[in-house]
Amino acid sequence: MNLRARTVLIRLLLVLSLGCAAWAFGASGASAMPIVNGGPTSALAQVAPRADTVLRITFVDVGQGDCAVLRSGSWTGLIDGGPPGTAPRIEAVLHSLKATHLDCLVITHPHADHIGGLAAVVQDYKPTTVVYGSEGTTKTWHNLRSELAGEGATFKMVRTDDELQFGQAKAKVLSPISLVGDPNSDSVVIDVTAGGKQFLFTGDVTGAHEADVGNLCARGPPIYLLKVAHHGSKYSTTATFLSQTRPKFAVISVGKNSYGHPAPATISRLKAAGARIYSTQKNGNVTVAVTSAGIVTWTFSRSSSPVTSAGSSDTPQPSPSGTTVYITATGECYHRAGCRFLSHSCIPISLAEAKAQGYRPCSVCKPPT
To answer: What gap in Å lies between CA 35 and CA 303, rounded to an integer?
Structure first.
């Protein structure tokens, strides 16, 4: 048996053995030990969803930006699309779900770190419906809007109290009730409910609109998972907002940046509120699957350790073995992003893992060796 075959067999046995020990939170709040998918892994290392899963959410590691893939039955949706150059990462998740199109694309607001990676995704997965809150003024937005219209998408501008159906999950728009003219403040905020759990997607909301959302959430049960606004900026996620939403878990979509995201003050406020914190920068792709009975399973493509501070100790340090390359389900080579031999089904993988599995470098795009 060659090296590649042995590696595949070992990984299969590992996934099967861990599948029984998935980190699950039932209605009683009981928990088992968290899964670490063999340490640093590719996006392929995911625990198979249970047959009774009603909603699966993957917060995609798109660096300094936002993107979440939602799957409910055969329904597939996307909330934002990351910064430019991240389409391969998004499409790798869609391919792993065997998605062929997008039923719904939610654009929280038209900033490049939320829509810059969507052009290729739109071409390959052709969204049926586009949900948005405000028109953008940039060339990126106008080009994307034209592309979406060209693919036959239906546009739906939403406001507070509008309701949406995400497969077996229900979604309610909490903001904006009206526009103030600032794209971040005017972000579409959506509360998604599945299996008796609430998942709050906040875009980059801040200021008065964030306060409005907090007031609405204070009337209901605690939020199970909060997608932290604005990559953990100190200007969002106030102590008052957290006291009203009472999140059990928080996910920060963030990458290397010069803005100081996530801010130490934000991390401190989340910890003081009792939330367990994860980030795409530290944990990679973060996937949450909930069943109709409210059992939630978490998996991570990098580390399962929660964020404890905003310092460098929580930020994975780059290394040659951590270099990302791309493979396909049937090919024998690994590639650079954008290689003409990659299809929309390309899969991100570390260079070290690609070499260990017997893949060879593409002679056209000449990836690192």
So the answer is: 9
User: What Cα–Cα distance (Å) separates residue 85 from each residue in 119, 225, 254?
Assistant: 10, 28, 15
- Alpha-carbon Rg for the chain, nearest whole angstrom, is 20
Q: What is the 3-state secondary structure (H, E, C) of 227-277?
A: ECHHHHCCCCCCHHHHHHHCCCEEEECCCCCCCCCCCHHHHHHHHHCCCEE
Q: What residue segments make up the domains of the chain, in order of their start? A: 27-312, 321-361
For the CA atoms of 217, 128, 118, 48, the dihedral, rounded to the nearest 10 degrees, stands at 70
**Amino acid identity of 318?**
P
* Short-list 221, 273, 274, 283, CA closest to 252: 283
* Beta strand extents in 262-359 (DSSP E only): 276-279, 286-291, 296-300, 324-327, 333-334, 347-350
Answer CATH for 27-312 from 3.20.20.105, 3.40.1190.20, 3.60.15.10, 1.10.10.10: 3.60.15.10
3-class SS of residue 57? strand
Cβ neighbours, 10 Å, residue 74: 11
Tell how far CA 290 is from the center of its chain.
Answer: 15
Rounded Cα gap, residues 172 and 182, in angstroms:
22
Q: How far apart are CA 205 and CA 185, in angstroms?
A: 5
CA distances 10 to 3, 14, 49, Å, are 11, 6, 20
Rounded-to-integer distance, Cα 300 and Cα 283, Å:
6
Residue type (1 letter), 239: A
**What is the pLDDT at residue 50?**
75
Confidence at residue 84, expressed as pLDDT on a 0 to 100 scale: 92
**Consecutive H or E run containing 281:** helix 280-283
For the chain (369 residues), the mean pLDDT of every run of 10, in chain order, is: 49 42 38 32 45 95 96 98 94 95 98 94 97 94 96 98 98 97 96 98 97 97 98 97 98 93 97 97 96 94 89 41 69 80 66 73 88
Residue found by looking up tokens 């939320």 in the block: 114
The maximal CA–CA distance of the chain, rounded, in angstroms, is: 64
Position 223 scores a pLDDT of 98
